[in-house]
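Quick review question:
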């Protein structure tokens, strides 16, 4: 395998995490990560962040490999319908956020549920969220994925295709892992200081979900309208696109090597804080 295609697949994965269709779901994921911790320790928070990032990446990658290898023959027929899934996903997120804002708990939520509205995360739920993230992102990212990864399989080079897919998934996962660890470490200094205000934290999470869901649904509606020949100019979409382009550009300029170094530094910081915590306990 050539070095350039691998680097290209890795870069495409980095950008895929911040694509125009699905990037608004990242704040919801981070909200679930923070508000659904149940007041666990810093060490549990860091481990939770890594597990959650891996689960989300697995769900995201699973959808892409399924769509790319199994459904690519009918991709041209499916793609015009994908925006309506985005609308439905946004509506569901907004409804769940409204439920939390009303002071209710999500079904099965624990921990914070005794004191107010609650969010809950698990490996299964994060994997499902990653799959939803991918489905919302397909219309924006499937073209590059098919061109970079699936083309290698179609050319008969299975090892090359597997390597490119692994690089693509690693790029996406790297962005999510860095964001997850950064939030997990910041949580100890910020969120835990407000633990007595847990119901407020959950309601704020609900507000984030409402805003995110509303934007995702609006983007799906906008995309469907454009596919039908509507005016592509939209003030809301253009404002969000400017943020998305800045984020994607920043990640692209930083590159995978620097992000990997940041991830290593965050892991090292968590280990140092863990040792200090043990020393203080003694």
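Suggested answer, residue by residue:
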């Amino acid at each position: 395998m050539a070095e350039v295609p691998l680097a290209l697949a890795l870069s495409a994965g980095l950008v895929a995490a911040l694509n125009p269709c699905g990037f608004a779901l990242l704040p919801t994921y981070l909200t679930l990560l923070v508000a659904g911790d149940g007041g666990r320790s810093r060490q549990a928070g860091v481990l939770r962040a890594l597990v959650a990032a891996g689960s989300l990446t697995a769900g995201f990658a699973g959808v892409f490999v399924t769509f790319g290898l199994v459904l690519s023959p009918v991709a041209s027929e499916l793609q015009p319908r994908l925006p309506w899934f985005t609308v439905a996903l946004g509506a569901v997120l907004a409804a769940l956020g409204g439920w939390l804002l009303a002071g209710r708990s999500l079904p099965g939520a624990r921990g914070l549920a005794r004191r107010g509205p609650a969010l809950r995360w698990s490996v299964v739920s994060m994997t499902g969220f990653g799959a939803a993230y991918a489905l919302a992102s397909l219309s924006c990212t499937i073209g590059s994925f098919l061109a970079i990864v699936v083309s290698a399989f179609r050319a008969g080079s299975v090892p090359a295709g597997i390597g490119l897919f692994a690089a693509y998934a690693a790029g996406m996962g790297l962005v999510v892992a860095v964001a997850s660890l950064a939030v997990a470490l910041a949580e100890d200094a910020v969120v835990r200081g407000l633990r007595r205000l847990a119901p407020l934290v959950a309601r704020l999470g609900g507000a984030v979900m409402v805003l995110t869901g509303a934007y995702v649904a609006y983007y799906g509606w906008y995309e469907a309208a454009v596919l039908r020949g509507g005016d592509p100019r939209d003030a809301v979409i253009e404002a969000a696109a400017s943020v998305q382009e800045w984020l994607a550009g920043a990640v692209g300029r930083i590159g995978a090597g620097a992000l990997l170094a940041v991830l290593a530094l965050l892991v090292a910081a968590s280990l140092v804080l863990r040792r200090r915590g043990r020393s203080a306990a003694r």
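Why it works: Residues 3-281 form one domain. The two ends are 52 Å apart (CA to CA).
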